[in-house]
Design brief:
CATH class of the largest domain: Mainly Alpha
CATH architecture of the largest domain: Orthogonal Bundle
Number of helices: 7
Order of helices and strands: HHHHEEEEHEHH
Distance between the termini: 42 Å
Helix content: 40-55%
Number of strands: 5
Number of domains: 2
CATH superfamily of the largest domain: Winged helix-like DNA-binding domain superfamily/Winged helix DNA-binding domain
Strand content: 5-15%
Largest sheet: 3 strands, mixed
Structural class: alpha+beta
């Protein structure tokens, strides 16, 4: 049973206004997707989101998941990122929250971090070049602590590095 419109979470209300502005409908499936996206604690891909919904007994097609994620990205509620692999990763955009990423080339771990000094340096650089920043994405590729302790195939790592699609 749906809550009255004014009792919906802010992100659902924002998505509804976005859809209405494009003369699209806010369906029950889209509401369930927004709820699931904002329930995710980490980055996810479309297939992981689809599986999570399926495991909860939600009969939402994979195509609907992909289409709705695209709409959520356009609306600014979801961030789409590429971490050097062949598919997109998503995360819910929570207000006034920014972070950057360390990505392990061996186990695909994604470590989020925030450093005010790094943000200040980026602002200083933009000011120095009279550049107005609109968005940035800082990603560092390498090996996490656990993978550094393991024996690695250097040629496999070199191949991964050459395939980065950022």
């Amino acid at each position: 049973m749906r809550k009255p419109k004014n009792e919906r979470p802010e992100e659902q209300q924002r998505f509804e206004a976005f859809l209405r502005s494009r003369q699209l409908k806010l369906t029950g499936e889209r509401l369930e997707l927004v709820e699931e996206v904002f329930g995710q604690a980490h980055h996810f891909d479309a297939d992981q989101l689809h599986m999570a919904l399926k495991q909860k007994g939600k009969a939402i097609s994979r195509a609907t998941v992909y289409r709705t994620l695209d709409l959520l990205v356009q609306c600014g509620l979801v961030r789409k990122s590429s971490f050097g692999d062949q598919h997109a990763h998503y995360e819910a955009v929570r207000s006034n929250e920014h972070h950057d990423h360390l990505i392990c080339l061996n186990c695909d771990a994604i470590i989020e971090f925030f450093r005010p000094t790094l943000e200040a340096l980026q602002e200083q650089i933009c000011k120095e070049f009279s550049f107005r920043p609109m968005h940035h994405s800082h990603q560092i590729f390498g090996l996490c602590k656990d993978c550094q302790a393991r024996t690695m195939d250097d040629s496999a790592l070199a191949h991964r590095l050459s395939q980065l699609n950022t």
